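Hi support team,

I submitted a single chain yesterday and got back a structure, but I'm not sure I'm reading the token output correctly. Could someone confirm the output below corresponds to the sequence I sent? I've pasted both exactly as they appear in my results page.

Thanks,
R.
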Amino acid sequence: MAFQKLQFNLLTKTKMLNHSKSFLTNISSRRSVRDFSDKAVPIDLITNAVKAAASAPSGANKQPWHFVIVTDPRIKKEIRLAAEREEKAFYSHRASDEWLKDLEPFETNWSKPFLEIAPSLIVVFKKAYDVRKKQRKKNYYVNESVGISCGILLAALHNSGLATLTHTPSPMGFLEGVLKRPKNEKAFLLIPVGFPSKDAEVPRLTKKPFNEVCDIL
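Hi R., thanks for writing in. Yes, this is the structure output for that exact sequence:
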């Protein structure tokens, strides 16, 4: 493998701190939204965010992800109906009593209208292996790599001024069928993307204090 000199922009300490504070303020304002407007989103905002996500580091640079951007109303409806079938089962008998009790404050249920109302859905798939020239090529650290990519994706979408939701209907295998994905791809995350509705509300949440989530040794 050929190597090249790293191009690194060394900032002053002041600029570094300003960038750090600015990003912290911006990303801390991100909230998961379930009340979307049907206002159209410029497709370039979506594709640029996916390109940013696809730049993520991955095990042995295997890049074990695939993204599907869904804007077709017919496909969004099909996804909603399939998701709601799984969610009905989840809320009726799959989820434990403890899980359901933890969800009560958020007032969620099996109904998922946002899957049709949000102008775009991004479905992220993970690939345990690639298929090239009819041969399987193993991928490494798949969950870790795809998880990092999704983090960048959410940050990029928020930075573009868009609202998102990390939706994980359980199980998500129906997405592979609806979107006709190959056998080596498994659904990882479903992200509705758009603008919040005018009357959108979010729960009042508090995050754990810094000293509870981090140790400096």
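A quick pointer for reading it: The helical segments are 13-28, 43-53, 73-94, 97-103, 114-117, 142-159, 174-178, 210-213. Let us know if anything else looks off.

Best,
Support desk
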